[in-house]
Amino acid sequence: MKKFTGLLVAAVGLATALLVDGALAATQCNTPPPGSPPISGTVRGGLVVNAGDFCILAGANVTGGVRVNAGGVLIACGSTIDGGIVADGALNLLIGAGMDEEPAGVVCPGNVINGRVQISNTGPGILAPAPSIALERNAIHGAVHLTSNAGPIVVSTNTIAGGLFCAGNAFDVDNEGTPSVITGAVRCNFGS
Fold first, then answer.
1. Closest-CA residue to 31 (of 65, 62, 57)
2. Residue 118 CB: number of other CB atoms within 10 A?
3. Which residues pair with 86 in a beta bridge?
4. Of 142, 11, 29, the residue nearest 85 (C-alpha)
5. C-alpha–C-alpha distance, residues 184 and 165, integer Å
6. Edge-to-edge strands of the sheet including 144-147?
7. Do 165 and 187 touch, CB atoms closer than 8 A?
8. Is the model's pTM score more than 0.70?
9. What φ, ψ does residue 12 adopt, rounded to 5°?
């Protein structure tokens, strides 16, 4: 019995080491200067956007979620994110934002986000005239929490399964005349 217990402890230790070294390691996302291709394809183990990083996802399939740290910028278009999005102190978050029609010509299809979206302490935004936070045309399978953000916020044309919660933001949420379909509680004020 002692040999079996020792073998079991060794196996658990090896499995833990493999998980810590492999599955939990996030890929740093920083799309270089304009004209460089965005991140696409499959990314396992999650993505992290650090201070000074400008991350563009287009057609990516991310497992492990996305974390945006203070000073990072995330633009996500037509991607699937398994594990949700957590951002604290980001400069800008444009998730499925953009116009499909001319003359704007900025096409950014919505995303599928499997997990919660938790955004806090985002600054006033550096990508004018875009809002500091835009969640548009996404299918979000989890709650959306927007807390203590300093800039304009747009939440429109999404399907959100899990509720929408706001607290301490400098601006009311704008739905641009196209509200989201939300399953669950809605605790946000909407303005124009």
1. 57
2. 18
3. 67, 118
4. 142
5. 10
6. 27-28, 47-49, 66-68, 85-88, 117-120, 144-147, 164-167, 186-187
7. yes
8. yes
9. -65, -40
Residue 96 CB neighbours (<10 A): 25
**What is the rounded CA–CA span in Å between residue 83 and residue 115?**
5
pLDDT tens, position by position, for the chain (192 residues)? 343 223 223 322 333 333 333 344 689 998 766 667 899 999 999 999 999 999 999 999 999 999 999 999 999 999 999 999 999 999 999 999 865 554 455 679 999 999 999 999 999 999 988 999 999 999 999 999 999 999 999 999 999 999 999 999 999 999 999 999 999 999 999 986
Q: Which two tokens stand for residue 127?
A: 């990508």
The widest CA-to-CA distance across the chain, in whole angstroms, is 74
Q: Which residues contact 172 (CB under 8 A, 6 or more apart)?
A: 153, 188, 189, 190, 191
Tokens describing residue 103? 């003359």
Q: Which amino acid is at 165?
A: F
Alpha-carbon distances, residue 162 vs 22, 52, 69, 82 (angstroms): 30, 31, 24, 15
Q: CA separation (Å) from 90 to 31, 49, 74, 114, 126?
A: 16, 9, 8, 21, 10
